[in-house]
């Protein structure tokens, strides 16, 4: 696997791990009729990290597609990623 694919795979592995944690927290919320403050904070943090990971992966893919170095892609600040409009 080349470095580009390896880096993308690491991002995808992180996404999969975060999705699993998010799913677990949401299921716990449903079973227990809510989360405590720490769990709610963790869920929000996981959601932000997921958005940042997806954004980074999109940046890397776009740079590759247009012949740029995907290694130049950087994690953007949470407030920037969270304020994107669909």
UniProtKB/TrEMBL annotation:
Domain of life: Bacteria
One Pfam family hit: DUF2630
Name of the molecule in the record: DUF2630 family protein
Disordered: annotated span: 64-86
